[in-house]
Specification:
CATH superfamily of the largest domain in chain A: ATPase, nucleotide binding domain
Oligomer: homodimer
Low-confidence stretches of chain A: none
Mean pLDDT of chain A: 90
Radius of gyration of chain A: 22 Å
Largest interface: A-B, 66 and 66 residues
Strand content of chain A: 15-25%
CATH architecture of the largest domain in chain A: 2-Layer Sandwich
Number of domains of chain A: 3
Number of strands of chain A: 16
CATH class of the largest domain in chain A: Alpha Beta
Chain lengths: ~400, ~400
DNA sequence: ATGAGTTATTCTGACTCTTGACATAATGCC
DNA sequence: GGCATTATGTCAAGAGTCAGAATAACTCAT
């Protein structure tokens, strides 16, 4: 509950920062419009932010006549944030400056079969230290870490990591121990939503859903521009909604979960059902199989087409449900499977989605497929953005 | 976005009103604790509210020693609100005072087969006028109306009424025309959530879901004590989430919807599938059939038991999904079907819910079944509460 | 050059909010 | 009647937002 004037200032300050980043380089006038704040307020807040070094006036734009517009940018030199994406098979740590521009990264393979906590924690710490050492003299504002499973951020405990069956491991404490930086932990589905919230000015106050399609499946839910975490930070586990009653077993222990059908292993299982001997199957490499399906589908291969049709049918049902329940403005498909198959799945699922959504929510929802760019890992970006958010809202502004 | 100090005051004032109602009769100290506001602030706000006539100091409590505690109540004499529940077969208009205590009501049958807009609007207007005339000289603060379907509150247009196939009917305008009162419109699933939010002090800032099980099925979603409406006021259409791929046809035009299985007609369809000649079936009366199932189930009738088991299986799947997606603190079952069958369905669905939810959201969620009391129609209460909310937040406090 | 015209920002004063500290009110008890 | 005790008003301080006045930084015509 907003109580005191200081809270208003913090909120508004933060809104200004996001507005500046979303529309870089931003004029004060534009920020006032985007945030709904008065001009005077934006001016004082910007002066403050510039004092603090968070924002710099980077350039000026000359209109035809009159005083030039001062254009502001987040100041990369303010400091660095590191985002770490812990996945089943790899670990990606990426350093960003305070303007969330990607700088350097460290990529390490993880052995999926050695899953003791220290087998993960040690490489993470190593990667963070490596990245930090690459930028000597620059202040490290914070580190964000993405770990799969349900993560209790307040206690920083990785309570349930689906692939690893960890239980009550205090991952945060283990990672942060002795590290001279604020470390924040969350799971990839929410961090993808955080990443999205920093990339598009329209996201500042929209209500939307970021679907993460990868090995795991989940949804980051953003309401009025704020990440919705639920009671215990486990909202968005759409991947474990029931799609088929008593259907396929899921790695979470339940059956018929959405993830069991449209997660990468689910798609591969569908392929194996249709043609157990398909040359597209690479038993040792999910990524390769998904890539093979994508390529074959582009060439009209009937097996691949059938796999996509089946996947799109499941995806359509599951997405229709979430649209009916949440009435979002946008549904965004992200994650590495989306990057490869998102467009074709969405195209084929559209009729299904249309058939299973009510007219009103259907008519107002937009779709977007996020393709990863080759430089930035979006989960790392989200983790870094989380660290930046925490730093900014913690810093008295 | 909270911008100015006036917004803070409005928010806080409103929080105080809700806190007083939730814990009637309430001490200032208790309110301060419940709202998190300082004592001084609560004191000034209460003085304001008492000035306005919204609150009265109704009694005092004598502690062992010291000045007695002044206990405050919402002042019923402040005015009246009327809540109207438009259902398929009846119309229930109920008058409440400003403390949301039920006073009088008017119940009219509606002929489900005559569904032109004026066949509904005229009785609604008549009922409102009848109720208003019963309390002469008392100010009417507002009228809330519940209409089935997807309702755009801002424009007040009933865009889609599932049972009636209305399209773009400006129900609000038709009802309010010439009536000397502020009329507000929403749909029953959200109004049940509003009603719940006014009945229990714990609901003030909880995140929860109110499942409406009746002829139609839906969910009112409340996040941090605030009703979540989605982009176009159609959030919560859980009844039209896909439960069974290509399953039973639903009256919304889609297939396999949750409502088609656990709404009253769905339950009856399940019964008819199990035993087409069951004596429990009353082809002309949904309510009677559901009541008969409830009674028979209590006596161990195998057909009724099988119907409940099947319904509980569907219910369990659908509820598990919403728990995984929203991670709520409480799931509340409301609506007339819940009142009759809620307990037994919930009991039988629990293992299913447990099997299909992740450990974290499962371990923190509570369940509650709302049984209607014989006096108050909960949808009317929610409609009245909506009108009261609108009045209070509109009034400068 | 220079003043007029234009547009962007900052400054100022008015008003409002919350809060901690202090003052005041209403009791029971001795 | 005075004292201890608890519950509420009151007040000044600190902080925010905002509308509008004042200032800054340009272009352009003269």
């Amino acid at each position: 509950m907003t109580a005191t004037t200081a809270d208003i200032r913090r909120e508004n300050s933060y809104a200004v920062v996001r507005a500046i980043h979303a529309d870089t380089p931003a004029s004060r006038r534009g920020v006032a419009k985007a945030t709904g704040l008065s001009f005077a307020t934006v001016s004082t807040i910007c002066a403050n932010l510039i004092d603090q070094g968070i924002v710099v006036e980077s350039s000026r734009e000359r209109p035809h006549t009159g005083r030039p517009t001062g254009l502001m940018t987040l100041d990369g030199a303010y400091g660095l944030v590191i985002g770490v994406d812990i996945a089943e098979t790899y670990l990606h740590a990426q350093t960003f400056n305070a303007a969330l521009e990607p700088l350097t990264w460290t990529h390490l393979p993880l052995n999926p079969s050695s899953t003791a906590p220290e087998d993960v924690v040690d490489p993470v710490r190593l990667a963070i230290q490596t990245e930090a050492a690459r930028h000597p003299g620059q202040p490290l504002l914070g580190v964000g870490v993405s770990a799969p499973g349900v993560v209790d951020t307040s206690g920083g405990v990785s309570i349930f990591a689906a692939g690893w069956a960890w239980h009550d491991i205090s991952l945060l404490t283990m990672i942060a121990d002795g590290l001279d930086a604020d470390v924040h932990l969350d799971n990839p589905l929410r961090l993808l939503a955080v990443a999205e919230s920093w990339t598009d000015p329209r996201r500042l106050d929209q209500t939307y859903v970021v679907l993460n399609l990868g090995t795991g499946v989940g949804a980051g839910i953003v309401i009025d521009g704020r990440l919705f975490r639920g009671q215990t930070n486990s909202a968005g586990e759409w991947g474990h909604a029931v799609l088929v009653s008593d259907g396929r077993p899921c790695r979470c222990g339940s059956t018929g979960c959405v993830e069991a059908y449209i997660g990468a292993p689910g798609i591969i299982a569908t392929l194996a059902t249709i043609d157990p001997d398909s040359p597209l199957l690479d038993p040792d490499d999910q990524t390769a199989t998904i890539a093979a399906i994508a390529a074959a589908c582009g060439q009209g291969d009937p097996t691949a087409t059938a796999v996509i049709a089946e996947t799109a049918r499941h995806f359509g049902d599951a997405v229709a449900s979430i649209i009916n329940v949440l009435n979002p403005e946008v549904v965004i498909m992200a994650g590495w499977v989306s990057a490869q198959l998102g467009d074709v799945i969405l195209r084929q699922a559209r009729p299904r989605i249309d058939a299973h959504t009510l007219a009103v929510p259907r008519s107002v929802v937009d779709f977007q497929v996020n393709h990863a760019d080759s430089i930035t890992n979006p989960v790392s970006l989200g983790a870094a953005a989380l660290a930046l958010e925490r730093h900014l809202t913690g810093v008295p502004i």
